[in-house]
Amino acid sequence: MKKFFSILKYPISIAVGAFAYYWLISNPQESYPIPIILYWIPDVIGWNGFFIVIGVLAGLLTLGACVGILGEDKED
Questions:
Q1: CA-CA distance, 31 to 26, in Å (whole number)?
Q2: Domain limits of the chain?
Q3: Are 5 and 70 in contact (CB under 8 A)?
Q4: pTM
Q5: Least packed by Cβ within 10 Å: which of 59, 64, 71, 72?
């Protein structure tokens, strides 16, 4: 299982990020409830940019989870 995650940790994280972006774009919901503290971000970078940022964050979280499962340490 560790070998699986070590080989596919980057493709899995990219796929999760792309899926999160695609799901947010194709979701038929008319409005997105976001916290008031983050409400200015879509006004500054636009909704597509906001969805890209969310997709990148989802990919990074998935990469962190894969690295956590592997138990990899920092290489000094």
A1: 13
A2: 37-71
A3: yes
A4: 0.71
A5: 71
